Amino acid sequence: MNFLTRFSLKNAVAVFIISFLLIVGGLYSFSSLKVDLLPNVEFPQLSVEVVYPGASPADVNEQVTTKLEEKFKGIEGIKKVSSSSFETMGIVNLEFPFNTDMTKVEQQINTLIKDAKLPDTAQTKVNRFSFGTFPIYNISIFGKDHADVQTLLKDEIIPELNKIPGINSVTIGGTKESLVQITVDKEKATQYGLTLSSIKDQINAKYLSFPAGRVNTSDLQVPVRVDEKVDQVKKLEELQLTVGFLGTKTTGGTPTPVAAPILLKDVAKIEAITDQAEKTRYNQKDSISMAITKKQDANTVEVADKVMSTLKKYDDKINYNIGYDSASGIKQSVESLVKEGLLGALFASIAVLLFLRNIRATIIAIISIPLSLLFASIFLSRLNISLNIMTLGGMAVAVGRVVDDSIVVIENIFRRVRKSKDGMSNELVESSTKEILKAITASTITTVVVFLPLGFVGGITGEFFLPFALTVVFSLLASLLVAITVVPILARFAFKQAPKEEKENTLQRAYARAISWSLNHKAIILISSFVLLIGSFTLVSGLGFTFIPNEQQKTLVASIELPASTSVSKTNDISLKMEKMFAEKSEIKEVTTSVGGRNFSTGLKRENQANYFINLKDVTDVQSFIPKLEKDMQTLADEDAKGTKLGVQELSSGGPPSNNNVDIDLYSNNLDSLQEAATKVEDYLKKNDNLKYVTNNFSEKQKQYLIQIKSDKASEYGLSGFQILGTISDQTTPVSVGTLKLDNKDQSVQLSYDKSLTSREDLEKITLFSQRGPISLSDVADVKDADTFTSIQKLDGKVYARVSAQVKGNNTQKVTQTVVSGVKTDLTLPKDVSLTAGGGSDDTVKTFQDLLLAMLVAIGLVYLTMLITFGKARIPFIILSSLIFVPIGAFVFLFLAKEPLSVSVMIGFLMLIGIVTTNAIVLVDRIGQNHNLKGMTIRDSLIEAGKTRLRPILMTAFATITALIPLALTSSSGTLISKGLAITVIGGLTSSTLLTLIIVPIMYELFFRREAKKERKQTSK
After folding, report:
1. Which of 382, 573, 791, 886 is most buried, by the most CB atoms less than 10 A from its CB?
2. Cβ atoms of 61 and 327 closer than 8 Å
3. Whose CA is closest to 343, among 959, 965, 960?
4. Is 985 exposed, middle or buried (0-12, 13-18, 19+ CB in 10 A)?
5. Residue 42 in 3-state DSSP?
6. 223: which residues sit within 8 A by CB, 6+ positions away?
7. Would you say 431 and 831 are in contact if contact means Cβ atoms under 8 Å apart?
8. Whole-number Å distance between alpha carbons of 398 and 989
9. 561 and 86 Cβ atoms separated by less than 8 Å
């Protein structure tokens, strides 16, 4: 690669022009990078949502979810199939390995759904999961000056929002629907033999529009069309109905249909009403809520800004408040990481200046920082990688490392110029660069190759850290290119008049004496170092063990679930009391409410649920506030609705799983035993002070009326089961006629009786119209009370209940082991219930094992790189010896910072393999030059190399350490994933650098002990 230096020195202007173009391209690429919180990682998960109107959980399980599970379990590579069967709805979740072609899988699933022979009325929807599926905005909208907000949203605002590139969906809640309500007089309808279904059919029959052939005229064929429409509410009232029976008129003892028609208004009241299925509020004030999601590859910040710009156009008509805003969190995280990176660059520059004590040399050394990062931005842009916490974290980490090559080059040129009698020349710059070219190339390549084994990790960790690794790799490769092209040119012009070389300073002389003493007392040094190493491992047990450290969120999601079958009006009444209580809490800033809307976690709409986004004030201690809030909510709920379930936890909008969960899975075909066991485990977990957010997915029982048809009696009266079902359904559920064009506008039309059923006795008295006349339901069926479960959960085809909790603090594995052991030994569960336990710690252990394997592979790759570079099998072992003592500083610093062992820490150790060997390479390369090229003895080579390379080694280490200090000290949200990494690198680099300066010379002389011993004998003679 020396030809690049030679070319650059001969074509300085061309190199500067190329550099300028790269800077412009880098700035453009950086500005065009999509800004997001997290890497664009798609989870290999799919969910199939099936709506089966009117079906019970058992029916959904039998006729929908079980059929789909049977089909899906044969899909190649599938890891897990779980299902939930609710009333009228079933959800099947499928999980696959990473790197699965999800588009191909989705096509296969759609084919299997068609082959599953589901009921005709069942409707299916396939959903894919990614970080982008969570809304970027949840906005509460209010009208100004009595403006019709709902119409404005549907006709103007939402269509305009949907035009924004990157918008995936805009959904609104809390809207009111205008409909035509036809309230039928039950007594009159019964007298005339009419049901809601028959009335519906007769209304729809009046909406006729069909072609009826052609009439041939002399010149043309004119199409004929038959058309009949009821297009006004008044005409609807005048609609003639053909009745089934009239009074008790009989012929031969059999009721006879009466031909004389009656009008719809004779048996029903027709009026326009407003219906609101979901109620939404912001700080107790009625609103319309709007949730906005973006496409997975869209720029979150850009989309969010355009959404705000669109809404501002309507400032004269609407007011709005933002209950949830992911863009502001992204901006805050990006700004924090940019600040840490800039501070790191500043600290690294100061570190270089302190060592070189020359402003021009410092400027040349740090020029690699902007050039390398901008160069990396070009590649990130080409690969469509967004600017997120991982890429920015990579840049912040790379800031200290990208100056290393330039520091070594500039220091060597600076030192050689000061020693030279002839002064600055192209030849001197070229030879100075060539002298350390092998060392900096090898050190950069080793740092790059350590990231290759991340491919062995796989899963979410490998996917999530890939942008981080690529950012560091691109930056380091760019820094090497800058160091051997731009830096020599700048040095050529900057050091024309360099001060003469100073004599060895005090530090160099002290270090030379330290090397001499250490080489004569190898055993003492090695034993002391290993004692320190073993001592550092004793700190591990006090660090804790987690996937990613917990980070407090100032937004909570809360929900209340009242007993099954609670009406939306009852839920709303209790929710209003909750919201009033929230308003009295000084810690709460704002609350967004949805009553009867979709649950945040399951996506199900239920009338007995209310959900809340609760934004807390910045000074609130989240962990101490949540238990107090839960207690107050439970007290308030129990006053009006005993048995209300509630949950409060911090908002999680995506990202790698924290894996701080404990899961207890219980299996049994006896649902009563399963419920008993789940309740016992739930109560046990709630008593554990190390756990929070305890949940139980097993549903409560719901009171139900079970109608058992007497087949012989039904046949006697000429009634089928479907006829009985239709009549009962008419009595209990409003019948939708559909959307009809009335009075020049589309209006929903709904039929219902004026009297609803209020008891089992009312149900038994329902009138059925048989071939032998009107009879009661009790004549052909038995009506019984029954308790049924509101949902059925299955995992890999087996009915199960899962009780889960999150671990407080960061020692996930220890708490998980204690909890699992306690559940197995302390609880007596029903004999027909089996148990499996685990949770996030299992995945964390697997990930750590993968990362340890990746480190071993990285060390192997470094060894191969060193072997190819130096050509001797012993040299790589000498260089790798510097890694042995990395844990000393890393564990001590983690212990002092109270930072747990996490994936971030493990990535830090992986990085250290490349960074630490850099110092050893620079030192060993000089030793080899002294011994092989200059003919110096091994001992003299070691001492001279140590004194010569002391400054660049300390400079590069100090620059890397100081650049990471801002990242290590930060407490900003969104940077904690890099905090553990920074502390690990600082600690490990500190201890390894100090020990490398002593251990590497010792190891070198040990590996070449025969030759060294022979040289010492010859010298003594």
Report:
1. 886
2. no
3. 965
4. buried
5. strand
6. 211, 213, 214
7. no
8. 14
9. no
Two tokens at 497? Answer: 């008049």
For the chain, the residue count is 1021
Write the DSSP assignment of 251-302 as a string of letters.
ETTEE------EEHHHHEEEEEEEE-SSEEEETTEEEEEEEEEE-TTS-HHH
User: Using CA atoms, how far apart are residues 248 and 742, in angstroms rounded to an integer?
Assistant: 36
Closest by CA position to 889, among listed 907, 912, 910, 858: 912
Q: Cα separation of 343 and 360, whole Å?
A: 20
Residues 234, 247 contacting (CB under 8 angstroms) = no
| Helices 426-449 & 2-10 angle (0-180, nearest 10) | 140
C-beta atoms surrounding 604 within 10 Å: 17
Strands (E), 831-914: 834-839
Q: Please identify which residue in the block is written with the tokens 């990473």.
A: 98
Contacts (Cβ under 8 Å, ≥6 apart) of 500: 418
In angstroms, rounded to a whole number, what is the distance separating the alpha carbons of residues 385 and 40? 7
> For residue 843, what are its two tokens?
């995945």
DSSP string, 486-513: HHHHHHHHH-TTPPPPPPP-HHHHHHHH
The single residue listed with the structure tokens 């490998």 is: 462
For 94, the 3-state DSSP assignment is: strand
β-strands 745-753, 177-184 pairing? parallel
Q: Please report where in the chains the tokens 């109620």 appear, as a residue.
A: 279
Packing angle of the helix pair 389-419, 426-449 (nearest 10 deg): 150
The two three-digit tokens of residue 414, written as one number: 């600076």
Q: CA gyration radius for the chain?
A: 38
Nearest 5 degrees, angle CA 65-CA 69-CA 74? 165
End-to-end Cα distance, the chain: 44
Q: Which two tokens stand for residue 696?
A: 């139980």
Label residue 162 exposed, middle or buried (CB < 10 Å: 0-12, 13-18, 19+): exposed
Structure tokens at 563: 């007993």
Burial class (CB in 10 A: 0-12, 13-18, 19+), 268: buried
Helices and strands (DSSP H and E) totals, the chain: 35, 32
- CA torsion 223-225-231-237 (nearest 10°) is 160
Distances, alpha carbon 707 to alpha carbons 412, 720, 931, in Å = 93, 14, 97
Q: What are the average pLDDT values for consecutive 10-residue runs of the chain, which has 1021 residues?
A: 82 89 91 79 83 82 90 87 86 86 88 88 80 74 84 90 88 84 86 83 74 75 73 80 59 51 85 82 90 80 89 89 81 78 84 81 84 90 84 81 84 78 80 86 86 71 80 89 89 70 75 90 90 89 73 80 80 91 91 79 70 88 86 87 81 61 87 88 88 78 75 84 78 78 78 80 82 83 76 85 82 83 88 82 75 86 86 86 88 88 84 84 86 85 87 85 85 63 90 86 88 75 56
How many other C-beta atoms can be found within 10 angstroms of the C-beta atom of residue 436? 25
Q: What is the pTM for the complete model shown?
A: 0.75
What is the spatial distance between Cα 660 and Cα 842, in angstroms, rounded to a whole number? 10
Residue 722's Cβ-count burial label (10 Å; 0-12, 13-18, 19+) is: exposed
pLDDT recorded at residue 251: 47
Q: At what angle do helices 812-826 and 840-870 cross, to 10 degrees?
A: 140
Please, what is the angle between helix 840-870 and helix 426-449, to 10°?
150
Q: For residues 683 and 687, what is the distance between their CA atoms, to the nearest angstrom? A: 7
pLDDT score recorded for residue 710: 85
Tell me the two tokens of residue 851. Answer: 């990362």
The single-letter code of the amino acid at 885 is F
Alpha carbons 601 and 603: distance in angstroms, whole number = 6
205 contacts: CB under 8 Å, gap ≥ 6 = none
The encoded tokens of residue 42 equal 């798609």
